[in-house]
Automatic annotation (TrEMBL):
Gene3D superfamilies: Isopropylmalate Dehydrogenase. The gene is pdxA_1. The keyword Transcription does not apply. Its main location: cytoplasm. Catalyzes the NAD(P)-dependent oxidation of 4-(phosphooxy)-L-threonine (HTP) into 2-amino-3-oxo-4-(phosphooxy)butyric acid which spontaneously decarboxylates to form 3-amino-2-oxopropyl phosphate (AHAP). It is found in: Cytoplasm. This is 4-hydroxythreonine-4-phosphate dehydrogenase. Pathway: Cofactor biosynthesis; pyridoxine 5'-phosphate biosynthesis; pyridoxine 5'-phosphate from D-erythrose 4-phosphate: step 4/5. The active site is located at the dimer interface. Binds 1 divalent metal cation per subunit. Can use ions such as Zn(2+), Mg(2+) or Co(2+). A divalent metal cation binds at residues 159, 204, 259.
Length: 321
């Protein structure tokens, strides 16, 4: 039997506990997972059972949400992160990584964190989950993919100002992004010969140099020089014609040049079901594609769809690995 999925609690004052409970009510034994966090943070009407071994989750998940209990020093108040809880939030992530690396869990799914609370309470030195997981895994370079049934898209540059994109988007960066994406499609998505479409940086992919020269100077030559024996890479394509249905049918994943070029199409196509996947790690990691939503935490109205899709995708990826 496949090992269950580890779900780290994220910021307990956010919607993480609520959507974890809702995800269990929806999935139960169809997608066994266990919650790493404090059972006291979960909604009071959630059937729970504490576990000491992740393997117990496969059986327990049919009738209760399995919880690998962690202690938190401060009382949790919905919508109000307490920095003194930050070390326990980090401990939940580190515990999940350790369990998935040992094989006790088949994948790690992470509920959203609150970066300011982690910085204030634990001196958290990373821009976010992705960079922290890369450090824990000893990987210098990982790739963020946003995935749904309609589209898989990777931003080559992520959380930087648009003014810095042309200088930080280097041939080495793009080449590594393509390689990691292709390997992730093969190893974790079961696509033996991936087809990857590369977006242009400039409008109309530069339009022959009239709207920018990066495509002519190095992006197109880099794509032409790639070996074609293990994957097919095409482009650079005008980004404004890459994401309609007929275009999406021609590739398994698209690589965009910057954050909004990647996230606008997937959030437009499938806002609630997008999943954040980290490629390049030695284990499977997924996450819902949203934040802590402190403004609605504790009100019982949070939408669990993205977390449900993240857990289901992690299960499929584990079965393909």
């Amino acid at each position: 039997m496949t090992a269950p999925i580890a779900l780290s609690c994220g910021e307990p004052a956010g919607i993480g506990p609520e959507i974890a409970a809702k995800a269990w009510f929806e999935l139960r034994a169809r997608c066994p997972f266990f919650y790493i966090g404090d059972v006291a943070h979960l909604p009071a009407d959630t059937p729970t059972q504490q576990i000491s071994d992740p393997a117990q989750a496969n059986e327990i998940c049919a009738h209760a949400l399995p919880v690998l209990q962690l202690s938190f020093p401060a009382t949790n108040t919905a919508g109000q992160p307490d920095p003194s809880n930050a070390p326990s939030v980090i401990d939940a992530i580190e515990t999940g990584v350790s369990l998935v690396q040992s094989g006790a869990a088949s994948a790690l799914c992470t509920a959203p964190i609150h970066k300011k609370a982690l910085i204030d309470g634990a001196g958290f030195a990373y821009p976010g989950h992705t960079e922290f997981l890369a450090a824990l895994a000893g990987r210098k370079r990982v790739v963020m993919m946003l995935a749904s049934e309609q589209l898989r898209v990777v931003p080559a540059t992520i959380h930087i100002p648009l003014s810095r994109v042309p200088s930080e988007l280097t041939p080495d960066l793009l080449r590594e992004t393509i390689a990691i994406t292709a390997e992730g499609l093969r190893r974790q998505f079961g696509v033996p010969n991936p087809r990857i479409a590369i977006a242009g940086l400039n409008p109309h992919a530069g339009e022959g140099g009239k709207m920018g020269h990066e495509e002519l100077d190095w992006i197109a030559p880099l794509i032409s020089d790639l070996p074609g024996d293990t994957c097919t890479v095409t482009g650079p394509h005008p980004a404004d014609t890459m994401f309609h249905a007929a275009a999406r049918a021609r590739y398994d994943a698209a690589i965009a040049m910057y954050h909004d070029q990647a996230l606008i199409p997937i959030k437009t196509l499938d806002f609630d079901r997008g999943v954040n996947v980290t490629l390049g790690l030695p284990f499977i990691r997924t996450s819902p594609d949203h934040g802590t939503a402190l403004d609605i935490a504790g009100q019982g109205i949070a939408n669990p769809t993205s977390l449900i899709e993240a857990l289901k995708l992690a299960q499929r990826m584990a079965q393909s690995a």
